[in-house]
Amino acid sequence: MMDNTSIAGRDAVRDIIPSIGFTVVVCMCVAAGLAFAANMAGASAHRRTLAVEDTVNPNDASPASLGRLPGIGPARARAIVDYRRQFREANHGGSAFSRPQDLRKIAGIGPAIVTTIGPWLSFEARPAGEQAGVGGQP
Q: In sequence order, which residues have a C-beta less than 8 Å from that of residue 87 and are 6 or more positions away?
């Protein structure tokens, strides 16, 4: 014969088991979601990564080339090109940028981005009319 305490204990365990199962399923879903997000972030960074020899000259690079730099998307790339154009108009030509820190003049580009993109920047002069792409390709 069973006493009421053991029956109550069995009922309590029976009530907890579905909760434990639900918790395990939720944890597995969260872990899978985090793994997926980490994989997608890595894939995105890999797709946009440049080799160090694939330098970009912000004085003549296209928005597409600038947009491949880490931390520089289409809007910042367009802002760099717009600033460069305004600088040239105001100064009758010349290079708007001579070192990575000069890019801090662009809204949204701070010291962290300058440090990140610095290895992929070059500032050598190109012949007039030649626009550089990635890797110095026109």
A: 94, 96
pTM of the predicted model, to two decimals?
Answer: 0.55
Nearest-angstrom CA–CA distance, 4 and 13: 14
CA 74, chain centre distance (Å): 12
Domains of the chain, by residue range, sit at 1-48, 63-136
* 84, containing H or E segment: helix 74-91
- Residues β-bridged to residue 121: 56
Q: Which CATH architecture has domain 63-136?
A: Orthogonal Bundle (1.10)
d(CA 74, CA 2): 73
pLDDT in tens, 38-51: 655 544 444 455 55
